[in-house]
């Protein structure tokens, strides 16, 4: 007799994952973002021409937090924007029409600006390639640099981040789970593994 209420029956649609360890605590994320903010200011010799763009989802709170830290350092506002690149991923069908993204979607005019794209994890690089496509549909920035909280390797494209929270060598069975308060209700970075 089958028992549909058993845990095994209930979990068949979810990938089985095993937590292997906590890579960063909330306070380690905070300290890392302070360091990255200082590195951005140093590299750009201030923040006057900066624009920070978070890639949905977790790049958005990262951009807002770093903007706040830079504003504290430089005592002037830093513009932030949002990029939702889901329609630009090259792993989606190319048969459909390419959507037109309105300039207002990012939140500010990127022309001539020094842009720092922000995301939580850099893996194959395909999200960032798609983000660059989307970004240049909005205008021509003076420069574009990339910040990620975690670089886990396994790149499939020639894309590198200039500002990196932590490099974490991983196997292809492992997954980095970044959790941020604004999205997940808690802050932390976990290393998990897909169970066989
Ligand atoms: O370098 P890549 O191989 O492209 O992988 C990195 C991307 O994967 C994750 O996003 P995901 O697609 O899981 O969406 P989410 O941010 O909404 O969780 C992560 O937030 C990065 O954006
Ligand atoms: O390990 C990974 C790979 C891609 N995106 C993530 O969030 N984690």
Automatic annotation (TrEMBL):
Transcription regulation found in the keyword field: yes
Motif residue range(s): PRPP-binding: 115-127
Catalytic reactions of this protein: UMP + diphosphate = 5-phospho-alpha-D-ribose 1-diphosphate + uracil
Superkingdom field: Bacteria
Stretches the record annotates as Disordered: 1-22
GO molecular function, one term: uracil phosphoribosyltransferase activity
Transmembrane segments: none
E.C. code: 2.4.2.9
Keywords assigned by UniProt, alphabetized: Glycosyltransferase, Transcription, Transcription regulation, Transferase
Keyword Glycosyltransferase belongs to the record: yes
Domain spans labelled Phosphoribosyltransferase: 32-164
GO biological process: regulation of DNA-templated transcription
Record's compositionally biased regions (Basic and acidic residues): 13-22
Top-rank EC class of the record's enzyme: transferase
Function, as annotated: Regulates the transcription of the pyrimidine nucleotide (pyr) operon in response to exogenous pyrimidines.
Family classification: Belongs to the purine/pyrimidine phosphoribosyltransferase family. PyrR subfamily.
Protein name as it appears in the record: Bifunctional protein PyrR
Taxonomic lineage of the native organism: Bacteria, Pseudomonadati, Acidobacteriota, Terriglobia, Terriglobales
Gene: pyrR
């Amino acid at each position: 007799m089958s028992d549909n209420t058993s845990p095994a029956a209930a979990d068949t649609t979810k990938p089985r994952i095993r937590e292997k360890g906590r890579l960063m605590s909330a306070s380690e994320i905070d300290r890392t973002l302070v360091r990255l903010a200082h590195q951005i200011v140093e590299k750009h010799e201030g923040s006057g021409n900066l624009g920070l763009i978070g890639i949905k989802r977790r790049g958005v709170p990262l951009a807002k937090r770093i903007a706040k830290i830079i504003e504290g350092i430089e005592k002037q506002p830093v513009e932030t924007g949002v990029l939702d690149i889901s329609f630009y991923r090259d792993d989606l069908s190319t048969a459909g029409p390419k959507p037109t993204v309105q300039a207002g979607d990012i939140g500010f005019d990127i022309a001539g600006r020094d842009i720092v794209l922000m995301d939580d994890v850099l893996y194959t690089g395909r999200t960032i390639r798609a983000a660059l496509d989307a970004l240049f549909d909005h205008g021509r920035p003076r420069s574009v640099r990339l910040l990620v909280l975690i670089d886990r390797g396994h790149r499939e494209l020639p894309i590198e981040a200039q500002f990196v929270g932590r490099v974490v060598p991983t196997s292809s069975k492992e997954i980095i789970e970044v959790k941020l308060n604004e999205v997940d209700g808690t802050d932390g970075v976990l290393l998990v593994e897909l169970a066989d």
